[in-house]
UniProtKB/TrEMBL annotation, chain A:
Positions of transmembrane segments: none
Record has Iron-sulfur as a keyword: no
Keywords: ATP-binding, Nucleotide-binding, Transport
Family annotation (PANTHER family): ABC TRANSPORTER ATP-BINDING PROTEIN (PTHR45772:SF1), CONSERVED COMPONENT OF ABC TRANSPORTER FOR NATURAL AMINO ACIDS-RELATED (PTHR45772)
GO cellular component terms given for this protein: plasma membrane
Name recorded for this polypeptide: Branched-chain amino acid ABC transporter, ATP-binding protein
Domain ABC transporter: 38-286
InterPro entries reported in the protein's UniProt record: AAA+_ATPase, ABC_AA/LPS_Transport, ABC_transporter-like_ATP-bd, BCA_ABC_TP_C, P-loop_NTPase
Organism, scientific name: Salipiger bermudensis (strain DSM 26914 / JCM 13377 / KCTC 12554 / HTCC2601)
Pfam families xrefs: ABC_tran, BCA_ABC_TP_C
GO molecular function list: ATP binding; ATP hydrolysis activity
Length: 288, 662
């Protein structure tokens, strides 16, 4: 297992259930990947007559970088929305930390340690970077409204403690120089980084990244890749990401799920997936 | 004010023969006063003198534990951080020699210095620096251990020869009883003539040279210069210039330890301006380029400001330029003018100084390059006591400096206390002082070439003392001053400086030695020209495209012609007017070897690298196609191709009839 500090909300039974499932594996660069953290079993998602996701199963293991790839409209974002609790699957089960997760609101999911970034940046444009990142700590604050209004007692202590976490994230992602800058004034690449900062500030067990490199230039992609690897390495955060840039996906991830038209057509380490004929066909197209 | 403080300080000079000895004195005398501050996690963290001593001692014990011997060289690489300053003093405590290196240097550049000094130990700031040293470690025969400060990303590295800074400190604390005797003995045995630090000169020509400076050099210089400017323990400085540069060593270690003032380290290079504002230093140093950039930014922001603010700014700045410097120098100024200046202080100068972080500057210095008179006057008009000094690594910085109230943009001041100056027949400036370096490490020939047995050092600069004021004026590098084909004097830097005073021009290189006329390469300033383009709706995709824009070329031609007119007024140098020029398609860069790490032009290398362009300037062609190799920050190489237009500029007939204009 990774370090024990991460899973404070685990009961012993939960942990055993998670570990029992599998022993984990060792990656090419020597990282120990743990047991199953989240498992999706036979997930189907329908919107009226449209079947967005058809009977998909896969798991996400403790400490790994898991990628979901696929052509446009394959159902990747829907999958992420199911994990984050925004959609409830029409069929199938979602197991998280060894227990079946009942249908939940997104904020309840967030409290359980799932944080995400969005494909189209969803920050508060008029607020400073610092305030935006602080919103990532909301799930860790519970001072009453009176205390908040007077900024006295519990609210104050809480803010100081949370600010410390936020400052560590700011330091980690090297955005000190824009701490007080309104987000609306930042270039796109930095906004993406601020979004990552906000998600990290929640100290998640699973970090969901929806196209973290979309619209970036090569240099920004390199920076973002380094941050993703560093987050995984330093905090041991499990990461599940959707990405279009195949080069990035193959370099970053430990295991890849490939989707096409709502179906899973491949699952495994990058090299294996790359050699999979179905995957090649889906990406290059085949004559029907 | 400062006088009382300094009286008790000089009394101890005899016993204080090393930086660690000064540290001991400061820890007892200033105990709880702040010695270091660093902004981290958004908060200024501070360490008092006694805390700093504890930290340094723990690290020094750790170094002993690791096997640091007397006379070892310990390289220090990274941005200004208290831990790295402590590393240097800790190394001195162990009797070793700290060798700070430029952190932005590429691995190969570091290899030369590390190899040359035979460093057994390297203290690196972070993963980036560690990676560079790991790249070259197989070629470093004496290298043994590396210590890093920031553990981020370092977990997976092979830790047989790699140690974390805090671990070394912990080991040092744990081994206190075992090593404290040895450490005390080594600290006490440090003599005035032992090496204090070794600094590699950036070298406008050839390989870098390791300048060995003794405790005497550093402490005497720090003492003299601190007395000259009445520096006291209450000063605040911001340490942001490269640690490998002699100036930073003198300001942040020499003077700081001598007078006991506080050294503040910024959070990161990008936050420097914010940190400057928060600290509001009382003693500040910046190369002319920093002042230029700031002024350019102020001007750009004023262009974007509202009409009222803009009007107010220009109105009061005009007044400040007129009376500000006079008020600063204590010259008579009428009551009405004074009142208006006071009003301006409230409305414009005060807020502006506050934004710049200059509210508390009592002594400000600039050096390294000539500074434009307009730029210089701008800051002095605001009431900032900005002065010039002239110095060298070999002199432990100070050769001449401007006393308060005798400040002018065109001189570098009077000899610093304890410095003797002699002008040779060919105009070259020689000096002798307690700060004169011991030797170039492992390079007796160069030492002998530079320093004669009586201790006189050749500066390599040509200059003269102005009659009446006794101020030194520097014309140019002695070896750059040459003759043109017709025997007229050729002083490229004189012309280049005039060009660089235009905000649109970042860098200029003038050619003409042995030729019949002068020509120039010009680099545009992307901030200034880019802003102009934005305001005039001129679209551009790259530096190269902007640099080749016809309107930009016309603007630059205007600047060149203005400079020609001004050069023509000088009888001796009127031959240096620029007949043809081109605007370069890339910025001159230290990574490509075109500038030194301190951003001085490497004339010869540029002339060789762009020989096709130089030829085109002289063969009369209108344009030239060229391919240039560039090095990216990560060391990869690429090529850029461009067709450059060659522009003619009008010249002015010189005062005497000798030169014919085009």
């Amino acid at each position: 297992m990774m370090d024990g500090t991460e899973q404070t909300h685990w009961t012993n039974d939960e942990r055993q259930a998670a570990v029992k499932d599998s022993e984990g594996y060792v990656t090419a660069d020597g990282r120990q990947i743990g047991g199953v953290l989240m498992e999706l079993r036979n997930i189907t998602l329908r919107f009226g007559g449209v079947v967005a996701i058809k009977d998909i199963s896969f798991d996400i293991r403790e400490g790994e970088i898991r990628a979901i790839i696929g052509p446009n409209g394959a159902g990747k974002s829907s999958m992420l929305n199911i994990i984050s609790g925004f959609y409830t699957p029409s069929e199938g089960e979602l197991w998280y930390k060894g227990a079946k997760r009942p249908p939940m609101k997104p904020y309840e999911v967030a409290r359980m340690g799932v944080a995400r970034t969005f494909q189209n940046i969803a920050l508060f444009e008029g607020m400073s970077v610092l305030d935006n990142v602080m919103t990532g700590r909301l799930t860790h604050m519970n001072a009453g409204i009176a205390s908040q209004a007077l900024w006295w007692g519990k609210a104050r202590d809480e803010e100081i403690a949370n600010r410390e976490v936020v400052e560590k994230v700011i330091d980690f992602l090297e955005i000190q120089s824009i701490r007080k800058t309104p987000v609306g004034r930042l270039p796109y690449g930095l906004k993406k980084r601020v979004e990552l900062a906000r998600a990290l500030a929640a100290e998640p067990s699973i970090l969901l990244l929806d196209e973290p490199m979309a619209g970036m230039n090569v240099e920004e992609k390199e920076d973002m890749s380094r941050f993703i690897l560093d987050v995984n390495d330093e905090f041991g955060t499990t990461i599940c990401l959707i990405e279009h840039d195949m080069g990035v996906v193959m370099d970053l991830s430990d295991r890849v799920v490939v989707m096409d038209y709502g179906k899973k057509i491949g699952d495994g380490p990058p090299d294996e997936v790359r050699a999979n004929q179905d995957v090649i066909d889906a990406y290059l197209g085949v004559a029907h | 004010m400062g006088g009382d403080n300094l009286a008790y300080m000089s009394e101890g000079a005899e016993g204080l023969r090393s930086i660690p000895a000064l540290l001991q004195r400061n820890a007892t005398r200033f105990g709880t006063r702040p010695a270091y501050r660093e902004k981290e996690f958004g908060i200024w963290q501070s360490w008092s003198w006694s805390e700093a001593e504890t930290e340094i001692e723990a690290f020094a014990l750790g170094l002993l534990n690791l096997g640091v011997e007397k006379g070892d060289h310990v390289a220090v690489i990274g941005r200004n951080r208290p831990t790295l300053y402590w590393s240097m003093v800790a190394a001195q405590m162990c009797g070793a020699v700290p060798v700070p290196l430029y952190q932005d240097a590429a691995a190969e550049e570091m290899e030369y210095a590390l190899q040359h000094c035979g460093a057994r130990f390297v203290i690196a700031a972070d993963q980036e620096q560690v990676d560079k040293v790991i790249d070259i470690q197989d070629d470093l025969h004496q290298f043994e251990h590396m210590i890093y400060v920031d553990p981020r990303g370092m977990r997976k590295y092979d830790h047989r020869r790699l140690h974390e800074y805090s671990h070394i400190q912990n080991q040092g604390r744990a081994a206190y009883d075992e090593f404290i005797g040895e450490l005390t003995a080594r600290r006490e045995s440090l003599g005035y003539d032992d090496t204090c630090v070794m600094l590699y000169t950036s070298g406008t020509t050839g390989k870098p040279k390791g300048v060995v400076l003794s405790n005497r050099n550093i402490i005497e210089t720090a003492k003299n210069s601190a007395e000259f400017d009445k520096l006291g323990p209450g000063e605040e400085v911001l340490a942001y210039l490269p640690m490998a540069w002699v100036g930073d060593f003198i300001f942040s270690i020499g003077q700081a330890y001598w007078t006991g003032f506080c050294v503040n380290c910024p959070e990161s290079a990008e936050t420097m301006m914010t940190d400057l504002r928060e600290i509001a230093p009382s003693y500040y140093f910046a190369p002319p380029r920093v002042f230029e950039t700031q002024l350019t930014q102020i001007m750009i922001r004023m262009e974007d400001a509202g009409a009222l603010k803009r009007k107010m700014f220009h109105h009061f700045m005009a007044h400040a330029r007129e009376v500000g410097p006079k008020i600063l120098d204590g010259k008579p100024v009428g009551l009405l003018d004074r009142l208006k200046y006071a009003l301006g202080s409230g409305l414009v100068y005060g807020p502006l100084k506050n934004t710049l972080g200059f509210s508390n500057v009592r002594v400000g210095y600039t050096a390294g390059e000539a500074i434009g008179p307009e730029i210089f006057d701008f800051y002095r008009a605001l009431g900032i006591n900005l002065k010039q000094l002239y110095g060298q690594t070999e002199a432990s910085v100070f050769i001449t400096q401007q006393p308060d109230n005798e400040v002018r943009p065109d001189t570098v001041g009077v000899p610093s206390p304890g410095v003797e100056i002699r002008i040779a027949e060919n105009g070259e400036v020689f000096y002798r002082s307690p700060g004169v370096f011991v030797e170039y490490y492992k390079n007796a020939d160069s030492t002998a070439d530079t320093k004669d047995p009586e201790g006189w050092v050749a500066t390599g600069d040509a200059g003269f003392f102005e009659e009446g004021t006794g101020h030194l004026r520097i014309i140019d590098r002695a070896k750059d001053v040459g003759k043109m084909a017709d025997g007229a004097l050729f002083a490229p830097k004189y012309v280049e400086n005039k060009l660089k005073f235009f905000p649109n021009i970042l860098e200029a290189v003038v050619f003409g030695a042995g030729k019949d006329r002068c020509t120039a390469f010009i680099n545009i300033d992307l901030t200034a020209v880019g802003n102009w383009a934005e305001r005039n709706n001129i679209a551009y995709a790259s530096y190269q495209e902007l640099a080749g824009h016809p309107q930009v070329l016309e603007t630059i031609r205007g600047h060149v012609e203005e400079v020609n007119a001004s050069v023509a007024e000088d009888e001796m140098l009127s031959g240096c007017q620029i007949h043809r020029f081109l605007v370069l398609h890339k910025e001159l860069d230290a990574d490509d070897g075109e500038l030194t790490r301190t951003r001085k032009v490497r004339r010869k290398i540029i002339a060789e690298k762009f020989h096709d362009l130089v030829a085109a300037l002289y063969d009369g062609s209108d344009s030239i196609y060229t391919e240039t190799e560039v090095t990216y920050e990560d060391g990869r190489k690429g090529k850029i191709r461009a067709t450059l237009a060659i522009m003619d500029a009008k010249t002015v007939p010189a005062a005497p009839p000798a030169m014919a204009a085009e």
